[in-house]
Amino acid sequence: MAHDVFISYSSKDKPIADGICASLEAAGLRCWIAPRDIGPGEEWPKAITNAIAKSQVMVLVFSSNSNASSDVGREIVLAANKNLVIIPFKIENVEPEPGKQYYLAQTHWLEAMNPPTKDQIKKLIARVQAIIPPLDVEPIVQPASTPPSLMEQPSSPLPAVKLGWWRRSYLWAGIPLILILLAMAFWPKFQGMLASQKATPTLPATTTLPPISTLTSSATPTEMSLPSVTPSTGTVTGSIVWGSKPYEGVTVTLCSDWKIKCNGLEYSAVTDAQGSFSISGIEPGEFQMVTIVPEQLGIFYPGDKIIKIQVNAGETIELEPVLKCKYDLKATAPVIQNGKVTLHWSAYPGATIYTIDIYDKSWNNVAYIATKTTSGTPLSTTDNSNTIEPGNYFYLVSMADVDGGCACAFGQFSIP
Predict the structure, then answer these.
(1) Least packed by Cβ within 10 Å: which of 63, 273, 317, 370?
(2) Is the pTM of the predicted complex or chain greater than 0.85?
(3) Which domains does the chain have, with CATH numbers?
């Protein structure tokens, strides 16, 4: 089917994109949206490229998800190269990343904070209609001309009848007489019609007038009722702190099936300078929340707290501040000798006790030591009777802060 509008969106915003598509099509605007309009066996890149080339307008459902999507970025570039009018429909308060900002700098943005309202979708429809004339909802079909019947089509022209001058004189004299007779015959009925129009009937108090139905020959697209966009996803907000201080740069991940790594639906956000985060467009269900910073090398330490969250459609969950150790304690690379591990670390303000934990790849603790040793003096597994077997291991050096927080150093090493 021919189309005029290409809808670009992140798959995480699919419920909102589907609602926008339904509203535009209800207003008579033909849309192309994936995966609905991709034929069986058709290649996605080819189908999307062809759809953009045949469109006049791109409606971009802009959010943190589409901002981070490389596929959406490629669609924007294709639309710009084909001179499509790009209308960003902003459902989250995020700034476009530099690559997308280059193509969207001169566009007219429509604000629609998540979830969009009916009035905001009406504005989007009006904007698209200003560029593309809407389809006729009820096209008027002109009746075909019907040839006259055979009785109306004489096989040969009839001869003209010529009247003499005296017959014409009688004809003209008879016309006024005929008009007078007609007036006399219909005058009583005409008087009754005038009287019925002037009379105003008085209805009894108990009489109820029937409702008057108003027929409209055709409704314009702006008069059509828009389908309501019911929120189908949820939002989670909160903050990460260490002690009483905000923790910036923490990646907060919601996962529907977490076992060492995420094996199901995954949604992420990074905390700002205030330690705050917000994740929207989450499918309803139960999720586990984990927190990882770059110093953890992308590895989740099982000692960190895992929070379980039930997300419901249309709801925003505001979490209490989540406490996390600060991964800024500096430690040198481990020194291994005869199955013994030696570590050095820098002094940390407010530290009272330092501890070292060594784990194997299955997170079994193979060595644990607590010490009040000052900075610069090595902490060694020689203080522990265990000798570590050859293999791959994690180490975690930590300290307790007088402010109620903790600081850590994390890394990996191998014993040949």
Answers:
(1) 273
(2) no
(3) 5-129 (3.40.50.10140), 234-323 (2.60.40.10), 335-415 (2.60.40.2550)
Residue with tokens 């008057």: 212
d(CA 216, CA 201): 29
Distances (CA, A) of 294 to 291, 329, 392: 10, 13, 21
User: In this structure, are residues 315 and 234 in contact, taking their beta carbons and an 8 Å threshold?
Assistant: yes
Instruction: Indicate the length of the chain as a whole number.
Output: 416
Of the candidates 316, 391, 329, the one whose C-alpha atom is nearest the C-alpha of residue 356 is: 329
**Site of tokens 């929207």:** 280
Which amino acid appears at position 8 of this protein? S
Kindly state the tokens that stand for 266: 């995954």
- Closest alpha carbon to 34 in 26, 50, 23: 50
Peptide bond into 115 cis (omega under 30): yes
- pLDDT, one tens digit per residue, over 74-111 is 999 999 999 999 999 998 888 898 888 888 877 778 88
90 contacts: CB under 8 Å, gap ≥ 6: 62, 63, 109, 110, 111, 112, 113
How far is Cα of residue 138 from the mean position of the Cα atoms in its chain? 31
Which tens digits make up the pLDDT trace of 269-299?
999 999 999 999 999 999 999 999 988 888 8
Strands (E), 96-138: 110-111
* DSSP at 416: -
Closest CA to 276 of 322, 235, 234: 322
CA 108 to chain centre: 18
Q: How many CA atoms lie within 13 A of 117 on its CB side?
A: 6
Question: What distance, in Å, lies between the first and last C-alpha atoms of the chain?
Answer: 65
DSSP SS3 for 75: helix
CB 160 within 8 A of CB 252: no
For residues 415 and 390, is the Cβ–Cβ distance under 8 A?
yes
Closest C-alpha to 128, from 42, 3, 16: 3
